[in-house]
UniProtKB/TrEMBL annotation, chain A:
Residues 5-138 form the DUF1468 domain. This is Membrane protein TctB, putative. Signal peptide: none annotated. Keywords: Membrane, Transmembrane, Transmembrane helix. It comes from the Bacteria. InterPro entries: DUF1468. The chain crosses the membrane at residues 5-27, 39-56, 68-84, 90-107, 114-133.
TrEMBL record, chain B:
InterPro entries: DUF112_TM (IPR002823). This is TctA protein. Keywords: Membrane, Transmembrane, Transmembrane helix. The chain crosses the membrane at residues 21-40, 52-74, 112-135, 147-166, 173-191, 203-226, 261-282, 324-345, 357-381, 393-411, 432-449, 474-491. PANTHER family: TRICARBOXYLIC TRANSPORT PROTEIN. Pfam families: TctA (PF01970). Residues 21-441 form the DUF112 domain. The keyword Transmembrane helix applies. It comes from Salipiger bermudensis (strain DSM 26914 / JCM 13377 / KCTC 12554 / HTCC2601) (Pelagibaca bermudensis).
Amino acid sequence: MADRIFAAVLLAVTIGYAVIAFTVIRAPFQYDPLGPESWPRILSIVAILCLLYILWKPDAIGFDMTRQVWFRLGAAVVLLLAYSDLYEPLGFILSTILFGTIMALMLGAPRLRAVGFGIAAGVFGWLLCVTLMDLNLPEGALYEAVVDSFQQTEEEGAS
Amino acid sequence: MDAVLSGLATGFSVALDPFNLMLVLVGCFVGTLIGALPGLGPINGVAILLPIAYGLGFQPEAALILLAGIYYGAEYGGRISSILLNVPGDAGAVMTTLDGNPLARAGQAGRALSLSAVASFVGGTFAVILMSLFAPALAGFAVTFGPADYVALMVFAFASLASLVGKSTVKTLLGATIGLMLATIGIDANTGVPRYTFGIPDILAGIDFLIVVVGLFGMAELLTLVEQQARGTLKSLPVDRSFVTMADLAKSKWTIARSSVIGFFIGILPGTGASVASAVAYGTEKRISDTEGTFGKGDVRGLAAPEAANNAAAGGSMVPMLTLGIPGSGTTAILLGALLMFNIQPGPTMFTQRPEVAWGLVASMYIGNVALLVINLPLVGLFARMLTIPQHYLTPLIAVLAFIGIYTIVGNPHDLFMITMLGVFGWFLRKLDFSLAPIILGFVLGGLFEDNLRRALSISGGDWSILVSNWKSILLYVLALFVVVLPIWLARRARGNAMQDAESH
């Protein structure tokens, strides 16, 4: 059943892909026998044939997961999305501390150790990647604001 | 022969450079750590660390040496979790659990680990030697390939992929097609027409290879770990002081030799990597040597066979990647993508145009093999301790690494969403028994496949018969057909025999 639903969704996407390939994509002028539309057309036909076969003869795969597992997976995805959303505003260190701590807690780590892990991941990650390996990671709006205000007070003091 | 020796000399002068030598060692060490972690196989390890390696701003040969070391090391380390936990790190290590884990349960974990390290070393070294002999010759031959032959080669690659990888042929084919379709997104290089960009400027140049790789492999792996973690915990067996004996080696020496040959040649087949090689080697060895029915109960030969084969296959799968530009496995597809990011087109001309990269990589594999054996024999206890790192720390760490890598390269928080969503997609695919390697293979080869098809038809002025106009392409199509039909025929015959047996009894 899961197989059929997934194949049906993919089929809808593929038909959209095919419609674009057969109607929209067109080169204004070309000398080659195959234009930019030919290859997507071939691919969409192959994909549709495969999908029809899966719809016709799906494998019997059940998602035999308890509601609890679904809940954890959903929570993990939400956490990841929140992490990507806060990555730049909070900066690497703060967002990693938050994400590492909450994720570890959710997966069953003891409370204090989870906090320790989060702080270690944030601080050591920053030291290792930025200080040692010179990679580019976000400092965070908060940090920048603090630095800016310092510079402003310095400028005011100087003037 | 002269070309091989002078090439190797070039290669070793690159690989023995102190900095590169350090990278080989670091790569092997990190790779073994990653391989030893349960659930994290070579392909995920390379996928997660690729953006970081790219972001460090090394020379192409240095970055490639580092990545190959990680790949190699992970192939080595996979056996540790197979033997001690009975949980294979990836598909290539499944066969190792069959005889490795019973040995460890019988209190001979040390013996099993050291024997498998020796078998891996022999398999790996054998593959590198054959590779340095074959690769230049094959590259020399491949220079004569025209666009039509490349199309045939690609069809052969996907045919062998579809028939040998994954549970369902149709799903593997569909996976490869999804990869090829993803590769069509962006501006068409020949005509400048945008395809499937929907006016979004971020994807005019196509979907970033790194995002697809990290999303489909790294993040999907993370979600799988979350799912499994909620289902129960793992128990590791202790490492004891037992060690491999001369008698074990004498007993398994022919096994190792046979399996190395099998592994190397299966590794060369485009699309098939360590998992197929170790399964075939184990099956063959079981048929030849299992006279007392000890396989599966802790026979040293049953442990040596898949380990020699999967390391030989790791070397073998480098051959088509370096000489033809067609990767032999999912992981080499990622390495190929890495080369493309450095603007190096892998293929027959790489050995002559970028000898420092091609030969440097080969030489680093010689060094890596020795290094792995030296690292692995004394330090196996340390790696084994990695197994006891609780999953609840490991899982968030994967996300942190993946985010660092992607942000460093692309510097755009929008891409962090992309990898998360691709991870969800990849997790669904895995749940539904799709294997992910064909997708990445299709994605990496998509541009090459289309270009060659269009070029071939331009040469012939639109006449499709050019695709079958010379013996090289015809031979490849025949081989492709053979690869698809043979397993079906064998399965039918096996079923027929079983039916006959059932009737006669």
